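Moderator note: this is an archived Q&A kept for reference. The question asked for a predicted structure of one protein chain; the sequence and the answer are reproduced below.
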Amino acid sequence: MKRQVRASAGKRPALAAALVLTLVAGGFAAWGGRSWYAAAHDDSAAYAAQRDRALAAGEQAVQNLNTLDHQRVDQGLDLWETSTTGELHQQLVDGRKEFTSQVRTAKTVTTARVLSGAVTELDDRAGRARLLVALRVTVTTPDSKSSEKDSRMLGELTRTDGQWKLSALGQAPVGGAATG
């Protein structure tokens, strides 16, 4: 009988160590699962994702509205209209015929490239955002001469049908300019 007692006593430290390791692993699994759940359901993560979507849509829309080829005016203006909403959209629709004539007469090609952008305000519940975009606009004339201009644009976005679209766009004031 002494042999059985000694054999089972020798197994107890290994059993205890296995039990401790199992409890520790279970604790880490519970902690990891809780952390993952908290991160997945965190409002700040959803807010950041919405901000990123607004920024991407806003930068693309500003680039669209600063790019136009006189040989493909209709496609360019269609893109302008699909990038906008509200009063800005209506202004583009109302002025389309006159603007088309001016661009075809000038025979210019304008391309824009976004240098950087930032969302300056976001009201996710109201579906409104403001952004600042720096871009480089290149204008090529019929004689193949081109000029570049860097500019900063301030835009307002409105979420319609789950998509962010420009509802206002204007030049940002240059440093040193007096404000209001």
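Archived answer notes: The CA atoms of residues 16 and 56 lie 56 Å apart.
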